[in-house]
Design brief:
The protein folds into five domains: 149 residues; 119 residues, Beta-Lactamase (2-Layer Sandwich), CATH 3.30.450.20; 101 residues, Beta-Lactamase, CATH 3.30.450; 51 residues; 147 residues, 2-Layer Sandwich (Heat Shock Protein 90). The chain is α+β, with helices and mostly antiparallel strands. It contains 15 helices and 18 strands.
């Protein structure tokens, strides 16, 4: 009995051990698989979010530059309405000397303004005069009545249109303005703006940038093979309208191989382009007529996610092996020690690789963000210089017109032109002052002189007057004593208060009660000015990073998050400080502390 029962017991024990081993093996496989999937998903989400944040900053910069370029020449077509010779030509289009005079007049204005083309059309859309009258591809004599911007100007007073030039074959953005007499349109003034410089600048940016018009057709792109191609097949009605207005020249309008696979937060999408996965972030521009899109290849993110998945799986394997080693400890001491040494070595090597890879990724990300910030500051300063062309062109036109008016003994109208020139000179002064302010290297030394705080705050309030009036904000200013002075630079200090007041007004956009309080007084040997509002206050996640660059609570496209940083550096240059906090009654408060500009009589209660 005993001899036959013993082999059966051994067989039963072996069967139990085999089943236990199988169960542990399945459990270990499930654990490793779960860790790999979880690691991949976490890394994928983190990589997409980081890439999306970078794209949003890039969209801020590109959209600001594009909208600024489009708005530069809004004023130019309307100036031609004040030129008597232009209106005379509309009445006498066959007058050759008059046409020559207008051609040269347009050429002179455009040489100052810097647009690609400036021309005048009659009511039928026939080009009567143009700044390029002496070139082979001139628009003079061309019938442009089929263009939408001509019809829109005659019907609504103004028109806008992007398209390829009929004679030049170069794409551009057209702005048109109806020339009126006795309330009736007599013709159209049009300007063509070239966007090639913007498109060239996009080639230097990471990723791919493209601009879609209202039909969903790519009109600007850092990839030339995508220009004038839609993302999807165009409808028959749309193709008929394109055939009539000819905005894309002879382009075939072959759709891009673009497939949207997943929607993310905001305006971000994962799309497959020619079989390659990309992250696409977009934003409306040009008063929501167009859409700006930034693309980034997801291959690096996918590779990083795969690395994390492999690392997670290896870590899970290490954990399982450690558990197995612990279970086998009772059976063999020697095997346990050998396995522990091998596993520890593998574990140490794995951790070292993870640390090295993480450090490399962080350094690459830091270098990319730093480079984009430096490029952004350069583009912003260059944009202010280009803006000087607008008042210069206006001054040229107004001065020429004033001469004509004086010759015609129309002194009153000429005086009005000279007054407008004076205002434009003031505007030039403000633009150059802003350029000087933004082009300063932070931390530099600025000469400080006694400045009246009352005059600085009054000037800042005047600059924000339209903003205050539109937002319905009640402003309360209290300065004690009224003659209080600080050591600073007046223009720089005015910039600080313009920024603080603008931020406060924006913060109260949805508040039921909108009150802006500015208090200035003396504390010891310092002057303290507080700017407080009745808005919702500063978000908890932003408050610790209030003066960090590119940190903002405003909507995308409304700001770059540099205002408070610049303001803090300005105040610090003059030996002062800027700090902000949330008040107990709701709203935010910012305090500017500066050295006094003159000794104050001490008044106290002993």
């Amino acid at each position: 009995m005993g001899s036959t029962a013993l082999p059966a017991v051994h067989r039963l024990r072996a069967l139990i051990d085999a089943r236990t081993l199988a169960v542990w093996g399945v459990a270990a496989l499930l654990l490793v698989t779960a860790c790999a999937i979880a690691g991949h998903q976490v890394a994928m989400r983190a990589g997409q979010q980081s890439l999306q944040e970078t794209q949003q900053h890039r969209l801020d910069l590109i959209a600001t530059g594009l909208d600024g370029q489009l708005a530069r020449f809004d004023f130019l077509p309307s100036l031609l309405e004040m030129a008597p010779s232009v209106l005379k030509l509309l009445d006498s289009p066959a007058d050759a000397p008059l046409r020559d005079e207008v051609n040269r007049y347009l050429s002179g204005i455009n040489a100052t303004a810097g647009a690609e083309m400036l021309y005048v059309l009659d009511r039928s859309g026939l080009a009567l005069a143009a700044a390029d009258w002496d070139r082979p591809e001139t628009t003079v004599g061309t019938d442009l009545g089929f263009r939408p911007y001509v019809k829109d100007a005659l019907n609504a007073g103004r028109g806008r249109f992007f398209g390829v030039g009929i004679t030049s074959k170069r794409p551009g953005y057209y702005l048109s303005y109806a020339l009126l007499s006795a309330g009736q349109p007599r013709g159209v003034a049009a300007v063509k703006v070239s966007l090639s410089d913007i498109e060239t600048a996009w080639d230097k940016l990471p990723g791919t940038v493209l601009l879609l018009d209202e039909r969903g057709v790519v009109i600007l792109s850092s990839r030339q093979d995508w220009k004038f191609r839609p993302l999807t097949q165009l409808q028959a009605a749309t193709r008929a309208e394109i055939s009539q207005t000819r905005p894309y020249g002879d382009a075939s309008l072959l759709p891009i191989d673009w497939r949207e696979s997943e929607r993310l937060a905001g305006d971000a999408r994962i799309v497959e382009i020619e079989g390659v996965a990309h992250l696409a972030s977009s934003r409306p521009v040009n008063s929501a007529r167009w859409r700006l899109v930034v693309l980034e290849n997801l291959a690096p993110v996918l590779a990083a996610a795969r690395n994390v998945a492999v690392t997670s799986a290896l870590a899970a394997c290490v954990a399982v092996l450690l558990l197995l080693v612990a279970l086998q400890r009772r059976r063999t001491r020697q095997a346990m020690v050998a396995n522990q040494v091998a596993l520890q070595a593998a574990h140490d090597s794995l951790e070292s690789r993870v640390v090295e890879r993480t450090a490399e990724l962080r350094k690459a990300q830091s270098d990319l963000i730093h480079a984009e910030k430096m490029a952004a500051l350069g583009q912003m300063s260059a944009g202010l210089v280009h803006e000087l062309n607008q008042p210069l062109a206006a001054m040229r036109a107004l001065s020429d017109n004033a001469c004509v008016l004086i010759e015609g003994r129309r002194e009153q109208e000429a005086r009005g032109n000279l007054q407008r020139i004076g205002k434009l000179v003031d505007r030039l002064g403000k633009l150059t002052r802003q350029l000087k302010l933004f082009s300063r290297k932070w931390g530099g030394v600025t000469t400080a002189v006694p400045v009246g705080i009352k005059a600085v705050i009054a000037s800042a309030r005047e600059l924000q007057a339209e903003h205050i009036r539109e937002s319905g904000v009640d402003v309360e200013i209290k300065i004690e004593p009224p003659a209080l002075k600080v050591l600073a630079d007046e223009a720089s200090l005015e910039q600080v208060f313009v920024n603080l007041m603008g931020n406060a007004i924006d913060a109260m956009s949805n508040a039921p009660a909108r009150r802006l309080c500015i208090d200035a007084g003396v504390r010891g040997e310092r002057c303290v000015v507080t700017v407080s509002d009745s808005g919702p206050g500063i978000r908890d996640d932003i408050l610790p990073r209030l003066f960090d660059p590119f940190v903002t609570s405003k909507a995308a496209g409304a700001g770059l998050g540099l205002g408070l940083l610049v303001s803090a550096n300005i105040v610090r240059d003059f030996g002062g400080s800027l700090r902000g906090w949330n008040t107990a009654g709701g709203g935010a408060c910012f305090a500017v502390e500066l050295p006094l500009g003159a000794p104050m009589e001490r008044v106290g209660h002993g």
